[in-house]
Amino acid sequence: MKKLFLLALISLLLVQKNHAQFNENPIINLENFDKQRVHWGYFLGFNQYDFKFDANENTGDIQVAKSIGFNVGLIGNLRLSDHFDLRLEPGLYYTQRNLGFPGFSEERDFLREVRSTYIHFPLLLKISTKRLGNFKPYIVGGVSTSINLGSNEDSPDDNSNGTFRTKRSTYYYEIGFGIDFYLFYFKFSPSIRGVFAFSDELVPDADPNSPWTGNLNSIFSRGVFINFTFE
Q1: Whole-prediction pTM
Q2: Would the N or C end of the chain have less CB density within 10 A of its end CB?
Q3: 88-121 pLDDT tens trace
Q4: Residues near 32 by beta carbon (within 8 Å), at least 6 away in sequence
Q5: For the chain, first and last CA: distance in Å?
Q6: From CA 79, how far away is CA 77, in angstroms rounded?
Q7: Is 159 helix (H, G, I), strand (E, B) or coil?
Q8: H or E element: which one contains 123?
C-alpha cells in the first residue's frame, strides 16, 4: 500500500513536469471554481474493509471474507492556498466481514458475521498540483473517527452465543490520491484512499480462555475507499 501511494505521488509530479510539452489549448471549464474560499459537494463510492489481528500465539490464522460495501456522504472544502485545501467529508459506510476461526468443525462455531454501519468523520488535507487544463491531480491524507451504529459493544451476548463484539468508536489515519476533472457544470473527482485504524476494536468474551478471543490482544480495521465526488 505504501509503495502504491509513493508511485502515485511520483506519477503526479511527472505529469505536472511534462505538461508543458503539450501544445493543446483546451477550453477551460469552471475557470474560477478553485478561487472560492468555501464550497460544498457530495460523494458516492465503494469500500472494502479488512481486520488486522494481534494474537498472543500462532494457533492458526483467522480467515476474513471481505465484501464490497457502499459509501455516501457530504463534502465541505476550505481553500487554504492555491495548492492546499482542508476538507471535511462526513459519510455513511456500510460493510460486512465474515470471520472464520480455526479449530472448529461446525459452521455455527467457526463462522462469525460482523456487519457494520459506520458514520465516518475524516478531516483531510488535500495537496494539489498546478491545474493542467481541465484536470488536476492531488494527494490527500489526514485523520478520522467513526461511530459504528451496528456495534454490539454493550451486548451481554458474546461468541458463546454466536456474537462477535466490536467497539462503537474507532480512530484512523488515511492517505490516498485522485484527480479533479473540471466539467462544464461541476467538478468530478474519482479517488482511492487507504484507511488504517490505530485504536483497538476488540471486545473480549467474558471467558478469558475463550476459543474465539482468548488468544487475541487486539484487532484493527483497515480498508480501501473508492469515492466519486461531485462539487
Answers
A1: 0.85
A2: N
A3: 999 999 999 999 998 888 888 899 999 999 999 9
A4: none
A5: 28
A6: 6
A7: helix
A8: strand 111-128
Pull the grid cell for residue 146.
Answer: 467513526
In a domain, 25, yes or no: no
Radius of gyration of the chain (CA): 21
Neighbours of 140 (CB within 10 A): 21
Read off the pLDDT of residues 153-170 as tens digits, 9 standing for 90 and up: 888 988 989 999 999 999
> How many domains does one find in the chain?
1
How, if at all, do strands 187-197 and 69-79 pair?
unpaired
Q: Give a yes or no: residue 28 inside a domain.
A: no
Is residue 114 classed exposed, middle or buried when 0-12, 13-18 and 19+ CB atoms within 10 A define those classes?
buried
* Residue 174's CATH number: 2.40.160
Question: Could you tell me the residue range of the domain that residue 95 belongs to?
Answer: 2-16+38-189+199-230
The DSSP annotation for 41-64 comes to EEEEEEEEEEEEEEESS-S-PPEE
Q: Evaluate whether residue 203 is within a structural domain.
A: yes
Classified as helix, coil or strand, 185 is coil
3-state DSSP assignment of residue 169: strand
Residue 27 inside a domain? The answer is no
